[in-house]
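pasting for ref
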Amino acid sequence: MVAEEGRFLAWPANQGLWSWDNGRELLVGYVNGPWVDKEEGHKIGSPQTFQLARSLDGGRSWSRQAADPPFSLEGKAGSPAQPIHFDDPDLALRVLADGGKDADQRLGRFYVSEDRGHHWQGPYRFQGLEREKSLRGLILTSRTSYLVRGPASILMFLSARNPRLGKFNTRLDKTFVAESLDGGLHFRFLSWVVPWSDGRRAVMPSSVDLGEAGLVTALRRRDPRTGEQESNWIDAYGSSDDGRSWSFLSRVGETGQHNGNPPALTHLRDGRLACAWADRDGQRMLLRLSDDGGRSWGPQRLIRSNPHSFDMGYPQLRQNERGELVLIYYLATDERPHAYIEAALFRP
């Protein structure tokens, strides 16, 4: 899909996936940095840039593009000059946060495109969240996950870490829901999906709207205090009151050690849910289907195996106009040892 010799391309789950025309047009984000051969950590150096890839044929072919203007965590974020029309059919919204303590970065920022990601406005603040008691002293670690509720209303699935939790705080962050009712000019805190009393990580939400059946979000779970003794996993949670409260639905799958992997959840046109993730122990991309709104899941399906390295996954998932599932992830192979972005197309 997207590869470059001597470069490390990765983490589409962190960067966002948008689709239009029933999945015929797809836009996905990823990180591009120099490939560096080192013993520990990801084989990526600096500088790193946020890039985009677009498909106009439901994921069969892709072209690269730069964000215009470039996405950045540097400098101050402002406010939209006028309310955002969240029901704009060409809308794309991109969230950035790095968990930094800087006052201008603590709550992250977002960008908006009104032309399917060709041009972007921002960065904008999550105005109002700085006054929320539930977020006092916390630092946002959010990725891009949102559900449009109306012309001026949106639910943002964000996450935060608590620096007071000691050396594990960067691996104990939690997902929360924020709401805007005025086109993104102001936001308010609604709920934690998993309460802090749970004591384990619950982040990188992938969320869907099932209509009268409510909302479902899948979360990346981990207890970093166990080291690599316990496998990481994916849980699903549901809300019947538009994100104001949440209940556990099911354990979707195991993501292995090496810090695990986030989920990619999508709602199929036949009503089923599909959830994909990487098992880093088995070095493989997996998928399961649910026909009861995430309460239970069918057999595990192998989509891609990769004996080269556990450093893989971070998927995004959509159904295209032909009814195929388009699963986007990163990996490296024996033939292509520099990490690249790959798309798998298959029938659900």
